[in-house]
């Protein structure tokens, strides 16, 4: 049962030197848990069995997961096969002492937070330990309350560190993140299906041409799922060679291969309680396909060079622009893995089949690139918009995004004009004029009117509808432009 904040503050002040008069765990039990322990793992190292038993019992009672080692050499074996958040070690031990153990841990790249304890040379030893990288120091004899509060303080620091890492990762992933535009019925239906699938942990397979936004859709699914607070880890299976990809996915122990000077958790572990997005899954080698299948079935991964398995909870979302049916027939992809991934399947249609989305996408990209480039583009002219809407877009949304960015860089005014678009994007207005030339119709009057209408429309777009300025650009009088606007029905 907890107590009020004033009581907690007073008690902590006593701990800091005003009235340190606790007995065993009495005050800690009264205070209740100050920090929510997130399954932190502790390795306790001491050559005294009674001390190991007592410390393990105290920390377990407060929610920590504890393992013990009788000496430094045994501790080094433990950290070779398992990752610990904290290591609590005695300084005076036969063979390798606590300070030397601290040095060896740092040399091997072990990132665990180290807390040392000793009854000898308290002040000088504490300073030495801190200089060598220890987080804290406890002097013997100590009260169990002191140990508990030291670990609670360390756990809170570790929790904040994890939160910072998580926020930085999310910020990195969402910089330039394209939102999903769903103006077309096909995309609206797709988003509806995504919302239905989001609450469940079933594997997902997303298909579609390159550039359609498969990762964007995967992020959207993650953001509305119960795992939204977890990490979204993405990797392109076709961008990394097989041997390196295995190390990236599963991690490795120190010394597992040449160059493995420190242990490294894999992406499966990093995605624990979150999502691992496997892009271009069709490029995964058959050997890795087998290991991925086992992970999906068991929920366990084993680092390269280790014998023990680690339990993880990561939702797998895979994506491909390849025809997996053909890949299965040719023996490049395992059929059983396909069935395991294809629990929920979502197909993103190409951009050319959902032209209703192009206009809203242009508006979104203009706004996004105004922020990125520091520009002040207010919009796009109708001829330029028409040219983009009628484009073929073999590269889909990614190609459209690149074209809009390029156009904004080349635009000197506040409105994107046809001149800023790549030459291979045929403007519909000029296409119509070209059609008049290519046909048997030799009427100069019709061709001239079509060109005149096009030029007036461009001038009005360039001046944001200011007819007086448009007339000056066209080098005609104000009454003339009014007459032409009415004649051609320009709005």
Concise synopsis of the structure shown:
This protein has 491 residues and is α/β, with parallel strands linked by helices. Helix content is 49%, strand content 13%.
Would you write up a description of this structure?
With 491 residues, this protein is of the alpha/beta class. The chain has helices at residues 5-15, 26-31, 49-61, 72-81, 98-107, 122-131, 144-174, 185-197, 214-223, 242-250, 267-270, 286-298, 324-329, 335-341, 358-373, 382-389, 396-410, 428-438, 444-462, 467-474, 478-488; strands at 41-45, 65-69, 86-90, 113-118, 136-139, 204-208, 232-236, 251-252, 264-265, 275-279, 300-301, 310-311, 315-320, 344-348, 379-380, 415-416. It has a five-stranded parallel β-sheet with strand order 2-1-3-4-5, sandwiched between helices. Strands 7-10-13-6-14 form a five-stranded parallel β-sheet. Strands 8-9 form a two-stranded antiparallel sheet. Helix 18 (428-438) packs antiparallel against helix 19 and helix 19 crosses helix 20 (467-474). The longest helix is centred in the first third of the chain and has 31 residues, at 144-174. The protein starts with a helix and ends with a helix. 30% of the residues are buried.
Taking the sheet with the most strands, its summary is: 5 strands, parallel
Strand content: 5-15%
Q: Unreliable stretches, pLDDT < 50, 5 or more residues?
A: 1-37
Q: Which value, in Å, is the CA radius of gyration?
A: 33 Å
Principal-axes geometry comes out as: elongated
Number of helices: 21
Strand tally, please? 16
Approximately how much helix is present in the residues?
A: 40-55%
- What strand order characterises the main sheet? 2-1-3-4-5
Average the pLDDT over all residues and give the rounded result.
83
Terminal CA distance reads 73 Å
Q: Which structural class do you get from the secondary structure elements?
A: alpha/beta
């Amino acid at each position: 049962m907890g107590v009020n904040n004033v009581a907690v503050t007073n008690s902590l002040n006593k701990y800091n030197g005003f009235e340190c008069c606790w007995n065993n765990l009495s005050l800690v039990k009264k205070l209740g848990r100050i920090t929510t322990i997130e399954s932190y793992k502790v390795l306790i190292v001491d050559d005294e069995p009674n001390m190991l038993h007592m410390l393990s019992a105290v920390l377990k009672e407060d929610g920590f997961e504890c393992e013990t080692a009788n000496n430094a050499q045994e501790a080094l074996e433990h950290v070779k096969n398992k990752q610990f958040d904290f290591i609590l070690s005695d300084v005076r031990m036969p063979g390798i002492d606590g300070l030397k153990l601290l040095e060896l841990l740092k040399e091997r790249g072990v990132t665990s937070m180290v807390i040392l304890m000793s009854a000898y040379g308290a002040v000088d030893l504490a300073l030495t330990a801190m200089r060598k990288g220890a987080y804290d120091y406890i002097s013997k004899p100590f009260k169990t309350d002191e140990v508990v509060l030291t670990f609670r303080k360390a756990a809170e620091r570790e929790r904040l560190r994890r939160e910072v890492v998580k926020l930085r990762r999310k910020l990195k992933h969402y910089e330039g993140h394209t939102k999903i535009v769903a103006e077309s019925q096909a995309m609206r239906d797709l988003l509806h299906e995504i919302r239905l699938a989001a609450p469940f942990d079933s594997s997902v397979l997303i298909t579609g041409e390159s550039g359609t936004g498969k990762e964007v859709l995967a992020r959207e699914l993650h953001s509305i799922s119960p795992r939204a607070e977890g990490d979204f880890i993405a990797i392109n299976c076709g961008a990394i060679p097989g041997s390196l990809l295995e190390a990236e996915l599963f991690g490795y122990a120190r010394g597992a291969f040449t160059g493995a000077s420190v242990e490294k958790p894999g992406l499966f572990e990093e995605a624990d309680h979150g999502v691992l997005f496997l892009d271009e899954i069709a490029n995964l080698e058959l050997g890795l396909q087998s290991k991925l299948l086992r992970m999906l079935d068991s929920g366990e991964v084993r680092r390269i060079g280790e014998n023990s398995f680690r339990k993880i909870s990561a939702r797998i979302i895979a994506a491909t622009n390849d025809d997996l049916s053909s890949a299965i027939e040719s023996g490049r992809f395992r059929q059983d893995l396909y069935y395991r991934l294809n629990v929920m399947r979502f197909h993103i249609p190409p951009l050319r089949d959902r032209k209703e989305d192009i206009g809203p996408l242009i508006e979104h990209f203009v706004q996004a690139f105004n922020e990125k480039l520091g520009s002040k583009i207010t919009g796009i002219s109708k001829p330029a918009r028409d040219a983009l809407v009628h484009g073929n877009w073999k590269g889909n949304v990614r190609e459209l995004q690149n074209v809009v960015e390029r156009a904004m860089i080349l635009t000197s005014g506040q409105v994107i004009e046809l001149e800023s678009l790549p030459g291979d994007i045929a403007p519909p207005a000029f296409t119509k004029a070209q059609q008049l030339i290519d046909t048997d119709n030799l009427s100069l009057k019709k061709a001239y009117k079509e060109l005149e209408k096009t030029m007036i429309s461009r001038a009005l777009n360039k001046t944001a509808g200011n007819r007086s300025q448009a007339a000056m650009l066209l080098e005609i009088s104000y009454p003339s432009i009014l007459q032409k606007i009415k004649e051609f029905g320009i709005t």
